[in-house]
Amino acid sequence: MARWVVIGGTGTIGGALCRHLVSAGQQVLSVSRAPRGPEGCEHFSFALLPENDLSELFRAGDQVVYAAGLAGRGDCERNPQLARWLNSDCPVALLRAADSAGAESFVYLSSVKALRPPAGVLANEDSGIPAADVYGRSKWLGERQLLAEPVRCRLNLIRPASVYGGDSAAARAQRWRGLLRTWARLAPLPASGCRSFVSLSDLLAAIALVAEAADCNREIFIAAEPRFYDLAAIASAASGARTRACSWLTRLLLAPVRPLRRLPIAHKLLELEQSELYSAARLRSTLPWRAEGRYSEFLRGVS
């Protein structure tokens, strides 16, 4: 039986992946700096530092998933060198070590933020231009560097849309429902652009399929569900009440921010107006994967 090695095995996605694989009867090694890993996994407490020997992590036949990295945009802006290491250079060093050990496959969890898609376009894996912000740029550089490596093991990249699911996310959604229900009845929400999402369970299924697909090599896949959501649709689903969206309220609220668009916080607020729509057509056509989850059902507490 092939062993799975999950780098970042105690994070939100990595931990969920470890539990998913264990429940399927797989042998799993969780790797992170935490002292203990998910239940049922072998765990190796290891700090991803440039000076550490990465070769001891892998053996022949391993299926490696890189689910670590620096994800918070604010954290990346404050520490661009760490973002570059964890999102770009560290995955390359791990790929080299895994390949030297005879690993079977290596999957890198990137992000749809690696490319900035054209406004209002349903983006595929080739749409847009490389991101300029620290987080997106570090993911883009990680992708380019990985694909440039002359390795023998199968290498594939997955760009998830915004991921939802898990116990902590469900608890947050529950807390917001009452507030959104009251807001929806009293006042309109600012109009916003639409966003793509993918459920955590669907993402885990995509990772497993991509890692095990013998004919998939050097592919980039977007993982996203087919529906899109703006702020009003999110509020309506979470509250159960019809929510109005008001474009003039958006213009009013963002007017003081526009002259400050070069500041990170102002840039983030102005992104609310933009739509980022992503297609998982390549993943669906290549592998037997379908997004079963729907963000609206998650917000309603259905799933």
Automatic annotation (TrEMBL):
<protein>
    <submittedName>
        <fullName>Nucleoside-diphosphate-sugar epimerase</fullName>
    </submittedName>
</protein>
<dbReference type="InterPro" id="IPR050177">
    <property type="entry name" value="Lipid_A_modif_metabolic_enz"/>
</dbReference>
<dbReference type="Pfam" id="PF01370">
    <property type="entry name" value="Epimerase"/>
</dbReference>
<feature type="domain" description="NAD-dependent epimerase/dehydratase">
    <location>
        <begin position="5"/>
        <end position="214"/>
    </location>
</feature>
<dbReference type="InterPro" id="IPR036291">
    <property type="entry name" value="NAD(P)-bd_dom_sf"/>
</dbReference>
<dbReference type="InterPro" id="IPR001509">
    <property type="entry name" value="Epimerase_deHydtase"/>
</dbReference>
